[in-house]
Specification:
By secondary structure, this protein is α+β, with helices and mostly antiparallel strands. The protein is built from 20 helices and eleven strands. Helix 15 packs across helix 17 and helix 19 packs across helix 20. The protein is elongated, with a radius of gyration of 28 Å. About 35% of the residues are buried.
């Protein structure tokens, strides 16, 4: 084995061991190396072919295996926090050091991969007992003070696994929130945790729990999740990717929080979201303001196109996953028709046809093609031949074309 040949020891650790003990599928394999985790990852990458992805500051590396499966390496380390909420200062350590610096007992277990002790579970902190009792428990009383993002993770694990947060751990969480611990974390780190939660299948329950703890409002008032249970139901939720779920929750947040698109955009920028998510939130707020107009009795497909054309595609896709909108059957039908069909409809003819008729170039080209596009959207013309007839008649009515 590569590690043993160099006098290093490698262990399966963390979430992989937890999920294996629970009998649930794993996408990533976590390895802790007493030695040099990055070097071991690079050696393995040379043998397997993939390129190791290295993050030297924390001694971590990832080797992608294909099919969505990754090997995540970390050099076993010990940590100290120079101030509450700060990133830790790390240095190489033993397996015991590495397990002791983890967030919860259920994640502080290891299985040796060396020949001696192969497959024997290392459980120094009672993780097996907490798995059996279905409890999320921190390893020490200063855990949430050192790293308040563990509050987000405690809620995420509890809801995802169907566990309860252990009583003393919950008291420590409440105390940390009361003492303002979440405010000591950078906006980027807090928002990262919120976005991860929004990508979970039980995201709404997690957001409700965090709101009750006062954590979301401590990041930004616009994130407060004060909506009734079941407010967000996503169609085909089990088939959605984490990014698709996240986008649907961001769309809901923007639509509910902002009274104007500018407010939604300002919230997204304050949260330091990447530009695609800024556009998603801004246009979700736009769409929320337009929605009632989709139910107007006299609205034509071309009118719907004029209302919705140009809106961010991800915002449209996010809205299409919100089941609550389907109660408005008229508006929903028009929205879905636009998303699935009419936004892609284009005439066969272009300005080249007008040139072939000898029409002088100018504003009339834009007007004529717009009129033709509307006729296509509204089903007035349905084939290239009828487009020709429509355009010729349109031009004759304006004195731009003679003859029959």
């Amino acid at each position: 084995m590569l590690a043993e040949e160099r006098g290093w020891s490698a262990y399966l650790v963390g979430g992989f061991v937890r999920d294996a003990l629970l009998g649930t599928p794993q996408k990533d394999i976590d390895l802790a190396v007493v030695g040099d985790g990055v070097a071991l990852a690079q050696l393995l990458a040379l043998e397997l072919g993939p390129q190791a992805e290295v993050a030297d500051r924390f001694g971590t590396a990832t080797v992608p295996l294909g099919g969505g499966l990754d090997l995540d390496f970390v050099t076993a380390r010990k940590e100290r926090y120079p101030s509450p909420g700060a990133l830790p200062v790390v240095e190489p350590g033993t397996l015991e050091d590495d397990l002791a610096r983890r967030d919860f007992t259920i994640n502080a277990q290891a299985v040796p991969l060396e020949r001696e002790g192969l497959g024997q579970l290392v459980d120094r902190h009672g993780g097996v007992a907490d798995l059996a009792a279905k409890l999320v428990r921190v390893l020490h009383p200063k855990s949430f003070e050192d790293d308040p993002t563990r509050i987000f993770r405690a809620v995420r694990y509890a809801e995802r696994l169907g566990f309860k947060i252990e009583r003393d751990t919950l008291e420590l969480m409440l105390r940390a929130v009361r003492d303002g611990a979440p405010a000591t974390v950078s906006t980027e780190r807090a928002v990262r945790e919120v976005l991860l939660i929004m990508g979970e299948p039980r995201a709404e329950a997690m957001l409700v729990s965090l709101d009750k703890l006062g954590v979301l409002a401590s990041v930004h008032p616009g994130l407060a999740w004060t909506y009734p249970p079941g407010h967000v139901r996503l169609a085909n939720d089990s088939d959605l990717t984490p990014d698709q779920r996240r986008d649907a929750y961001l769309a809901t947040t923007a639509a509910e929080y902002a009274s104007a698109p500018e407010e939604a955009e300002a919230l997204a920028r304050w949260l330091r979201l990447p530009l695609p998510l800024v556009r998603l939130m801004r246009d979700s707020a736009v769409l929320a303001g337009l929605w009632s107009r989709l139910s107007n009795d006299d609205l034509r497909p071309s009118d719907v196109y004029d209302l919705l054309n140009g809106l961010d595609e991800r915002a449209l896709e996010a809205y299409s996953r919100l089941e609550a909108l389907r109660a408005d059957t008229v508006g929903w039908g028009r929205f879905r028709e636009f998303v699935s069909r009419t936004r892609k409809l284009r005439p066969h003819l272009t300005g080249d046809y007008l040139r072939s008729l000898g029409i002088k170039e100018g504003p009339v080209y834009k007007e004529a093609m717009k009129a033709l596009h509307e006729a296509v959207l509204d089903g007035v013309v349905t084939a290239k031949e009828t487009e020709v007839a429509f355009l010729r008649e349109w031009l004759r009515e304006r004195g731009l074309l003679e003859g029959s």
